[in-house]
Amino acid sequence: QAQVVQSGGGLVQPGGSLRLSCTASGFSLDYYSIGWFRQAPGKDHEGVLCISKSDDSTYYRESVEGRFTMTRDNAKNTVYLQMNSLEPEDTAVYYCVAIPPLLTSQQLCARAPLHLGHWGQGTLVTVSS
């Protein structure tokens, strides 16, 4: 069974850091594009950081560029979202999704593919004093 399991969320003060993990089983993340999305209460999913395997492109949401980065550990079949200098506006449930490399990173981040690919269960990030 192909699935993605997330961890790493929690409560952090403004200016703090968190690292979210997204671990796949049943398939290899190395062959998939990766999207990180977040959903604040009452709002739609919004693309945060997406990397396309098709053209090796990276798209950052402007508000997180310079603060968020993604890394891969192929040996662990895991991708990480490192979040630094967190702000209250970053509070949301964060999701990762792995999809076949058919879209550019900008296309992937523009619209959450809710019925495509392999989604993690989400993890809550709360940035508050």
Describe the structure.
- The protein is mainly beta and 129 residues long.
- 5% of the residues lie in helices and 46% in strands.
- It has one helix at residues 105-110, and strands at 3-7, 10-12, 18-25, 33-39, 46-51, 58-60, 68-73, 78-83, 92-99, 118-119, 123-127.
- The strands form two sheets. Strands 2, 4, 5, 6, 9, 10 and 11 form a seven-stranded mixed β-sheet that branches. Strands 1-3-8-7 form a four-stranded antiparallel β-sheet, with no helix packed on it.
- Strand 7 (68-73) and strand 8 form a beta hairpin.
- The longest helix is centred in the C-terminal third of the chain and has 6 residues, at 105-110.
- It is globular, with a radius of gyration of 14 Å.
Q: In summary, what is this structure?
A:
The chain is mainly beta and 129 residues long. The chain has one helix spanning 105-110; strands spanning 3-7, 10-12, 18-25, 33-39, 46-51, 58-60, 68-73, 78-83, 92-99, 118-119, 123-127.
Structural class: mainly beta
Q: Count helical runs.
A: 1
Could you name the ranges where pLDDT drops below 50 across 5 or more consecutive residues? none
Query: Roughly what percent helix?
Result: under 10%
Query: Distance between the terminal alpha carbons, to the nearest Å?
Result: 40 Å
Rounded mean pLDDT is 96
Strand residue percentage: over 45%
| Tertiary shape | globular
Order of helices and strands: EEEEEEEEEHEE
Q: How many individual β-strands? A: 11
The Cα radius of gyration reads: 14 Å
Oligomer: single chain
**Major sheet characteristics:** 7 strands, mixed
